[in-house]
Amino acid sequence: MKLYHAPGACSTASRIVLEEAGIAFETVEVNVRDKTLADGTSFLAINPKGQVPALVLGNGEVLTEGAVIIQYIADQAPESGLLPPPGNLERYRVLEWTNYIATELHKTFSPLMRPNTPPEFAAITKAALLPRVFGVLNDRLAASDYLAGATFSIADAYAFVILGWTKRQEIDLFPWPNIQAYLTRISDRPSVKAAL
């Protein structure tokens, strides 16, 4: 497999899951601003959406969308326990949290990464929108070490990366101690150290 990624971007979650799954892969860094690769070729030839991650499979097919890629990777290594088997309610709990991270946390953060976001909207995002999501996550993490229960899953790899953006945005997580402990716990994982 070949993973097209950008350091610090959401594609880092795919790298963590690949490491956790023990799947051999190579990486290709993408300049996400100008949509090019190191050799100057256009990333749009790989992913016309222009976003990372993109995963090229062994048969040459390209899979896009980070939340889907991490599910695919986990299904290739069921013994990893990153995603329970189909038909098991625990699987849908992991997917429930993965979807929440994609639609509530990731998408709420996204405007802060754009240079053309009005400062007023960025301020509202930091003061009201993100704290609501942080509250949901903090409450959940009061009940278990990981989002979907007692074990690390694809949802946690994704959440870890996006929550890491708080540093870049100078958002203090002091009001959410369970999130702080969670980030420390995940940062100690060998897969995370390898991916970072």
UniProtKB/TrEMBL annotation:
Keyword Repeat belongs to the record: no
Gene Ontology MF term list = glutathione transferase activity
Q: Gene3D superfamilies of this UniProt entry?
A: 1.20.1050.10, Glutaredoxin (3.40.30.10)
InterPro entries recorded:
Glutathione-S-Trfase_C-like (IPR010987), Glutathione-S-Trfase_C_sf (IPR036282), Glutathione_S-Trfase (IPR040079), Glutathione_S-Trfase_N (IPR004045), GST_C (IPR004046), Thioredoxin-like_sf (IPR036249)
Question: What residue stretches are annotated with the GST C-terminal domain?
Answer: 87-196
Residues in domain GST N-terminal?
Answer: 1-81
Q: Tell me its EC number(s), please.
A: 2.5.1.18
Keyword hit for Aminoacyl-tRNA synthetase: no
Keywords, A to Z, come to: Transferase
The family assignment reads: Belongs to the GST superfamily.
Do you know which PANTHER family this protein is assigned to? GLUTATHIONE S-TRANSFERASE GSTA (PTHR44051:SF8), GLUTATHIONE S-TRANSFERASE-RELATED (PTHR44051)
In Swiss-Prot or TrEMBL terms, this protein is called Glutathione S-transferase
Q: Which organism is it from?
A: Rhizobium herbae
